[in-house]
Amino acid sequence: MRVLVTGHRGYLGTVMVPVLQQAGHDVIGLDNGYFADCVLGPAPRDPADIRTDLRDITGDQLAGFDAVIHLAALSNDPLGSLDPLLTYDINHHAATRLARLARDAGVARFLYASTCSVYGAAGDGLVTEDAPLRPLTPYAESKVRVEDDVAELADADFTPVFLRNATAFGFSPRLRADIVLNNLVGHAVLTGDVRVLSDGTPWRPLVHARDIAAAFSTCLTAPADVVTARAYNVGTEANNLTVAEIAGAVVDAVSGSRLVITGENGPDPRSYRVDFARARNELGFVADWSIPAGATELHQAYTAYGLTDSDFAQRFTRLPQLQRLRDAGLVDARLRVARAQIPAIP
Ligand SMILES: NC(=O)c1ccc[n+]([C@@H]2O[C@H](COP(=O)([O-])OP(=O)(O)OC[C@H]3O[C@@H](n4cnc5c(N)ncnc54)[C@H](O)[C@@H]3O)[C@@H](O)[C@H]2O)c1
Q: What region does 222 belong to: left with phi over 0, alpha with psi -120 to 50, or beta?
């Protein structure tokens, strides 16, 4: 299939593109490059791409694709809360517009990167895809709105699918330090402390970036009548852990590190345990990566590639990286890129 992957130069996209290529797909990217040079280790081989802001894509640019995988977004809660209107602009309006243009251009399949955080404060029970959605942040709310709007576009020729990913972990050449396991392993390697800023009790479902890539690859070719306008939780029940349990796995993986639960951020209302049976039963999808395996992988990568304090806190953390781009005049207040390509900031 000829597949357009938006956000291909992000954390998940950089892992997903080779997985799709190995499955035989012809992949083209679309990304405005906020994190293009935020690389740890050898530089990834990016595919050919369309260099445009998502908000400016045209129907002509979408003609000829069999599928669109839509990852590009302001992609976590802190970023989403920076400027909620901007979050809705990029994450909701531009995403819905992309889906409509894709359908009108004859693209048959649209895979959307949603999130398990649409469930919000869900308590201790396992939530299925049919649970009420209680988004707690503009980021999560934007994901709900896209699912609602794009589901309405489904017809015999257009198959949208919503993949509600658990919180990702694992090594990507375009690393992110602002997701829980990657963050805790980084602190352990850099300081010897595994610092938990909440009280450690919230539940978090986790999934490896490569498992997410495999789920998208599976959904590209799954029967349209099964998956159309359907939501799938992506992860595994084995990785529904409390933050304190995740931290414990990090202490085990990074020898000499110690657990510090500061509680300084107070209670965290975002807590949910997720049921992943639908993807197992309908798609045959099983997420393989465990938390201990992911913590060990990250420890090895951080050590081998020489992770530094400043890169960890800045280039690999989304909010400060975007603030650096703004301060350097490389993006404007609406996060539009000022030049054809964002140069590396020293
Ligand atoms: N990482 C996670 O834990 C996780 C969990 C659930 C869902 N998701 C979703 O998966 C998707 C990818 O996440 P990620 O972790 O790779 O995020 P990321 O921030 O690493 O990458 C997003 C990419 O989108 C690009 N982008 C953003 N706005 C754009 C615009 N206006 N025009 C063109 N490109 C733009 C950025 O340059 C970046 O490369 C997102 O939609 C995110 O919400 C991520």
A: beta
Instruction: Indicate the top mutation candidate among 5, 17, 75, 139 to test ligand 1's pocket, ranked by most ligand atoms within 8 A of CB.
Output: 75
Structurally, the chain folds into a number of domains equal to: 1
132 part of a folded domain: yes
**Of ligand 1's atoms, which has the minimum distance to the CA of residue 36?**
39
Q: How confident is the model at residue 345 (pLDDT cuts 50, 70, 90)?
A: low
| Least-confidence region, from 164-168, 270-274, 326-330 | 270-274
Confidence of residue 122 (pLDDT cuts 50, 70, 90): confident
Kindly tell me if the per-residue pLDDT of 340 is higher than 80: no
Q: How many of the other CB atoms lie within 10 Å of CB of 249?
A: 22
Pocket of ligand 1 from Cβ distances under 6 Å: 7, 9-13, 31-35, 53-55, 71-73, 75, 90, 113, 115, 165, 167-168, 176, 179, 318
CA-nearest of 152, 83, 73 to 114 is: 73
Strand partners, 165: 115, 234
Tell the residue nearest (CA) to atom 19 of ligand 1: 75
Task: Give the span between the Cα atoms of 137 and 238, in whole angstroms.
Answer: 26
User: What's the CATH number where 8 sits?
Assistant: 3.40.50.720
Structural domain containing residue 138: 2-175+206-237+272-291+323-327
Pocket test for ligand 1, best of 6, 8, 12, 319 (most atoms within 8 A of CB): 12
Q: How many whole angstroms from 110 Cα to the centroid of ligand 1?
A: 16
Contact 155, 104 (CB under 8 A): no
73 CA to middle of ligand 1, Å? 4
Judged by DSSP in three states, 191 sits in helix
